[in-house]
Amino acid sequence: MVSRLPLTVREYASSDSRALGTLQPGAVVALTCKVVGEKVDGNDRWYRLGAGKKGYVAARYVDNLSAVPWC
């Protein structure tokens, strides 16, 4: 995935869950799968990070580089 702005990584698929860190603009990271979570600007999809990274990011702020399966 490619973040378009500093993006907070959350423990769960919700903006009020604990922040685990931040991804910088242009960061490219693996996405394991997608889930339904809190709506962010009308989009209720969140992506679970992969490649040993923990947490979720709101799909609203992500540009996919490939298809992401459902969890």
Structure description:
This protein has 71 residues and is mostly beta strands. It has one domain: SH3 type barrels, CATH 2.30.30. It contains no helices and seven strands. It has a three-stranded antiparallel β-sheet, with no helix packed on it. The protein is globular and about 25 Å long. The mean pLDDT is 93.
| CATH A-level architecture | Roll
Overall mean pLDDT stands at 93
Structure summary, number of beta strands: 7
State the helix count: 0
Q: Might you state the CATH topology name?
A: SH3 type barrels
Following the backbone from N to C, one meets helices and strands in this order, namely EEEEEEE
Task: Sketch the major β-sheet.
Answer: 3 strands, antiparallel
Rg calc: 11 Å
Q: Beta-strand level of the residues, as a percent range?
A: over 45%
Shape: globular
Terminal residue distance = 16 Å
Helix percent reads under 10%
What is the SS-derived class?
Answer: mainly beta
Give the class-level CATH name: Mainly Beta
Tell me the count of domains.
1
As residue ranges, the low-confidence spans are: none
